[in-house]
Amino acid sequence: MRTTLLGPFELAYDDIERELPPSICGVFALGYVDAADIFRVQRIGRDDDLRQRLRELIGSSTRFKFAIATSRQSAFERECVLFHRFQPPGNITHPDRPKRTDWLCPVCARFHP
Ligand SMILES: [Zn+2]
User: Fold this and answer.
1) How is the beta sheet containing 26-33 ordered, strand by strand?
2) pLDDT tens digits for 57-76?
3) CATH superfamily of 6-86
4) Which residue of 4, 8, 10, 30 could cross-link 15, Cys pair, CB 3.0 to 4.6 Å?
């Protein structure tokens, strides 16, 4: 599954407004750029309104990356892949699927009965 993220951008109002259209769902990674110029992921997530969510997270990290998802399920699956790949220190628990869905994590199939 493709997990390419755009960025990093400054986790600040101007960059968020410039990069993200309103009311789109997607995934994001928050983090910082280290001395070797490598983006270090601290936390990942998803939201049905990515721009609004990132606005709320201003101040929690210095940079963000993101990807627009084609559906809410796609956003969930991509969040799962990011979670398993980066094991971010800011994500203690596995991403939750929305209520009233039977979606499965594409990596660990955690929600198999
Ligand atoms: Zn999983």
Assistant:
1) 6-10, 63-68, 26-33, 39-47
2) 999 999 999 999 999 999 99
3) GIY-YIG endonuclease (3.40.1440.10)
4) 10
